[in-house]
From TrEMBL:
Organism listed in the record: Entomomonas moraniae
Cofactor: Mg(2+)
Reaction catalyzed: Endonucleolytic cleavage at apurinic or apyrimidinic sites to products with a 5'-phosphate
Entry protein name: Endonuclease V
Positions of Mg(2+) binding: D41, D111
Gene: nfi
A GO term, aspect molecular function: magnesium ion binding
GO CC list: cytoplasm
Localization (cell): Cytoplasm
Length: 233
DNA sequence: GCGACAG
DNA sequence: ATCTTGTCGC
């Protein structure tokens, strides 16, 4: 943690993104064997005037995809949502949640873009750099770039391109359901990132790591019920 | 200037 | 992201 990885000022944040983007590793540099894959997602709770940021990280065993650990961290929201500067709003809370984990993951799948970003530094890349961990981005919507239409069948995929550069892959993870936007986060190639997402897909649109994190972060499922399902201690 | 715009 | 009811389709 030599250089500051965060700022609250939008102007400085953009400058910082450009610097950090050059440090993102787009080639594979992950453990020989991946035993634990994590899902990261952030939710928000209204608290009258202000809001609380709720960061969740769930660690699953691979290939069983069973949840073996998780961490939840809540803190006052520090920044408003500004397209292109999402990581400055979410990453600090994610770091705090990560430090609460007992089981460190080998790879993290983050809800949002990796380098499929105007300045090539989406939330997945920012988090990966900060933690110096392999990460990949799994977004439900496009931030930038363009791509051809893709078939409605699960498994179909097309490249996401921006300014003559392939920045990600648009993947249909389920029949007739809007596709996912996958991209390199840090220390992983696009091909390997896509392979891991595919390896973690079951019957739902989202791969298990982020699907489980999303359920807890968004509070769509009572926390008490989730505990019973996961059966972890 | 106009439209787009992760979560 | 969050606020929110019913509704169409596999």
């Amino acid at each position: 943690m030599q250089l500051h990885e965060w700022t609250q000022d939008p102007k400085q944040a953009i400058i910082l993104q450009k610097q950090l983007a050059s440090r993102v590793e787009k080639n594979d540099r992950l453990p020989d064997k991946i035993n634990f894959v994590a899902g990261v997602d952030i939710g928000f709770e209204k608290q009258g005037e202000d809001t609380i940021t709720r960061a969740v990280i769930v660690v699953l065993n691979y290939p069983t995809l069973q949840v073996v650990d998780y961490a939840l961290h809540r803190e006052p929201t520090r920044m408003p949502y500004i397209p292109g500067l999402l990581s400055f709003r979410e990453v600090p809370a994610a770091i705090a949640a990560y430090q609460k984990l007992k089981q460190q993951p080998d790879l993290l799948m983050v809800d949002g873009q990796g380098i499929a970003h105007p300045r090539r530094l989406g939330v997945a890349s920012h988090l990966g750099l900060w933690l110096d961990k392999p990460t990949l981005g799994v977004a439900k919507k496009r931030l930038c770039g363009k791509h051809p239409e893709l078939p409605p069948q699960k498994g179909s995929h097309v490249p996401l391109e921006d300014k003559g550069e392939i920045i990600g892959t648009v993947l249909r993870s389920k029949d007739n359901i809007n596709p996912l936007y996958l991209s390199i986060g840090h220390r992983i190639s696009l091909q390997t990132a896509c392979n891991w997402v595919n390896a973690c897909l079951t019957k739902y649109k989202l791969p298990e790591p982020t699907r489980q994190a999303d359920r807890l972060a968004s509070r769509r499922v009572p926390e008490e019920q989730i505990f019973k399902e996961w059966q972890i201690l």
